[in-house]
Amino acid sequence: xxxxxxxxGGFVQAGGSLRLSCVASRRASTPAAIGWFRQAPGKERxxxxxxMWSRVTTDFAGPVKDRFTISRDIAxxxxxxxxxxxxxxxxxxxxxxxxxxxxxSALSRASVYNYWGQGxxxxxxx
Length: 126
Description:
Layout: E1 2-7, E2 10-13, E3 18-26, E4 33-39, E5 46-52, E6 58-60, E7 68-73, E8 78-83, E9 92-99, E10 115-116, E11 120-125
Parallel strand pairs: 2-11
Antiparallel strand pairs: 1-3, 3-8, 4-5, 4-9, 5-6, 7-8, 9-10, 9-11
């Protein structure tokens, strides 16, 4: 079982930056990947970014790939989502999720993730 805790959300003006953290507390197996998803009011949850745990393979959604970066600190069991040049359209609840077994080609699929955090709110004002 894996427990995930997100932090780092907040309120920021357009053009600003935030760094989200996802700490994975695991009792047994190491996650294969950690992904970030977001859900805005009235919209479906959508993929943002993901990273494989054992090697530096990443994937990004089109709208964020030139503005967001994802990294991991294995020793701290933490994945970071650095969000730059934030736009009002980035306003959402951001969730991290852990997949226990997957291939890098499936990083963007919510269905392959087994565990989810509670989410952290990101609000970007215009």
